[in-house]
Amino acid sequence: MKTGISAVLAATVMVCTACSSQISAEDGMTGLSNKEKAVALLNSIESGDQQAISYVDPNQYIQHNLAVGDGLAGFGKVLQALPEGSAKVDVKRAFQDGNYVFTHTDYNFFGPKVGFDVFRFENGRIVEHWDNLAAKTAANPSGRTQLDGPTEVTDLAQTEPNKRLVADFVDAILIKGDYAQLGRFIDGEDTDYLQHNSAIADGLAGLSRAMKAMADQGIEMTYTENHIILGEGNFVLSVSEGKFAGQHVSFYDLFRVANHKIVEHWDVIEPIPAKKQWKNSNGKFGF
Question: Which UniProt keywords apply (predicted)?
Answer without folding.
Answer: Signal
